[in-house]
Write a structure and sequence with these properties.
Blueprint lengths: L6 E5 L2 H4 L18 H4 L2 H6 L1 H14 L7 H12 L4 E5 L5 H5 L4 E3 L2 E8 L5 E3 L19 E5 L9 H10 L2 E5 L11 H7 L3 E6 L11 E4 L2 H15 L3
Parallel strand pairs: 1-2, 1-7, 2-3, 7-8, 8-9
Antiparallel strand pairs: 4-5, 4-6
Bound molecules: 2'-O-acetyl adenosine-5-diphosphoribose.
2'-O-acetyl adenosine-5-diphosphoribose binds next to α1.
């Protein structure tokens, strides 16, 4: 096992499941009762902005009813104690990593608690209901806010920074993601290409499970704290 200094961690909906946030791909193939293409595409927003705004307003309101679980807290502890570099990339639009205390954190698919104004292009912290067409906190214009969320067909945020981190990491860890959505699903192959060790922790094997050197199957709330304790005491994955 080589010396590990730089860690990149990718998380998906599975890490928030034990906090009570629904994953995207339930057994019925629906996300909280909706087809993804009805609520998570620019076309859906153009067709029925009210439906899309209400859908994300509900998800945003739900944040007040959930709390970080042991897996979020363990990753924040790892960041605080790890002597090398660490970058946490989440596909999740909830704020549970932020509330757990992670700071070296990047929301590649955007955030429920951020509003993007299509009039002034500004982004502002947001906790209310966009379906009520509130004014943009920056330009004061009404009716131009949309969820600051990356929808299908749109470019994930901070890809240059992510790609650089993947070339430099010694260990890539994927937690609670089905590996169904690119580019995130391809990060394991990039990291391996540049020489990283790779570890997956998920309830069941992801679509790209065979790309990982090591897979641990189970609940994130149990696997992640155990792994963090392990790596902090031995420096090994
Ligand atoms: P998915 O819903 O596709 O996958 C969640 C994964 O977490 C599944 O493989 C589950 O088996 C696993 N899982 C569930 N409970 C778990 C637990 N307690 N512990 C560990 N693993 C558990 O969610 P994502 O992979 O995050 O994109 O989805 C990726 C992207 O697709 C999302 O960011 C979103 C979505 O469409 C956009 O909105 C752009």
């Amino acid at each position: 096992m080589k010396d590990i200094q730089n860690i990149v961690i990718l998380t998906g909906a599975g890490i928030s499941a034990e906090s009570g946030v629904a994953t995207f791909r339930g057994p019925d193939g629906l996300w909280e009762g909706h087809r993804v293409e009805d609520v998570a595409t620019p076309e859906a927003f153009a067709r029925d902005s009210d439906l899309v705004q209400k859908f994300y307003d509900e998800r945003r309101a739900q944040l007040a009813t959930v709390a970080p679980n042991a897996a979020h807290l363990a990753l924040a502890e790892l960041e605080a104690k790890w002597p090398g570099d660490l970058l946490l990339i989440t596909q999740n639009v909830d704020d549970l990593h932020d509330r757990a205390g992670s700071q070296k954190l990047l929301h590649m698919h955007g955030e429920l608690s951020s509003a993007w104004c299509l009039a002034c292009d500004g982004r502002s912290p947001f906790t209310g209901q966009m379906a009520l067409d509130p004014a943009c906190p920056q330009c004061d214009q009404f009716g131009h806010l949309r969820p600051d969320i990356v929808w299908f067909g749109e470019m994930p945020y901070q890809m240059e920074r992510i790609e650089l981190a993947l070339t430099q990491c010694d260990l890539f860890v994927s937690i609670g993601t089905s590996g169904a959505v690119y580019p995130a699903a391809g990060f394991v192959q990039s990291a391996r290409h540049y020489g990283a060790e790779t570890l997956e922790m998920n309830l069941d094997p992801s679509e790209g499970s065979f790309h990982f050197h090591q897979s641990r199957m189970g609940r994130a709330g149990e696997l992640v704290p155990a792994w963090v304790e392990e790596i902090l005491s031995h420096g090994l994955c």
